[in-house]
Amino acid sequence: MRAIDAGLLICHECHQLNPSGQPACSRCGGRLHSRRPNSLARTWALLLTSMILYIPANLLPIMTVNSLGRGAPATIMGGVLELIHLGMLPIAAVVFIASILVPSFKLVGLALLLYSVQRHQPMSAQQRILMYRFIEWIGRWSMLDIFVIAILVALVNFGSLASIEAGAGAAAFASVVILTMLAALTFDPRLIWDNTEIHHD
């Protein structure tokens, strides 16, 4: 049974349970809502913005790998191929997973989750909650690629022998990561269990 069916509302500020008849939380005084106001709209806005930014994140150079005085700006896939060429296979695998697989899964997964909830598609609540928890779980690894690039820029600096510089694509990619993390936070998972209508009060 859901808390709302038992006549209870949870405060979004302090998580105190309150009777559904009162407008404010008895503990902190925060305004009570059965669901986060405009949760779907806010999540869609953040998700669509991150999808738009994901294009320049892949097209713009994310880093420049200089070896023996030569080098050219590389996109994410170009950087992966360059790292493979330099024999840095583990780092290339980390960059590929963190930059391509994880963001793509988060974008597609969130879009499918939002669509299934909003359009009441025939996906069970258990499937939706598993997808949401997995998206939350991989979210903690979203900044791994940015950390890898930052470490490479700091460590691989041997003058004309070898050096790595961050590119404009790294900023766009970091924006995508932050926006997808915010999208996961603004989504109200309780909407997964609502089978009839979305509450907006």
Written account of the structure:
This protein is 53% helix and 9% strand. The protein contains 6 helices and 5 strands; from the N terminus they run E-E-H-E-E-H-H-H-H-E-H. It has helices at 39-59, 76-85, 89-118, 125-139, 144-155, 168-186, and strands at 8-10, 17-19, 63-67, 73-74, 162-166. The strands form 2 sheets. A 3-stranded antiparallel sheet has the order 4-3-5. Helix 4 (125-139) runs antiparallel to helix 6. Residues 196-201 have low confidence and may be disordered.
How would you concisely characterize the structure shown here?
The chain has 201 residues and is mainly alpha-helical. 53% of the residues lie in helices and 9% in strands. The protein has helices at residues 39-59, 76-85, 89-118, 125-139, 144-155, 168-186; strands spanning 8-10, 17-19, 63-67, 73-74, 162-166.
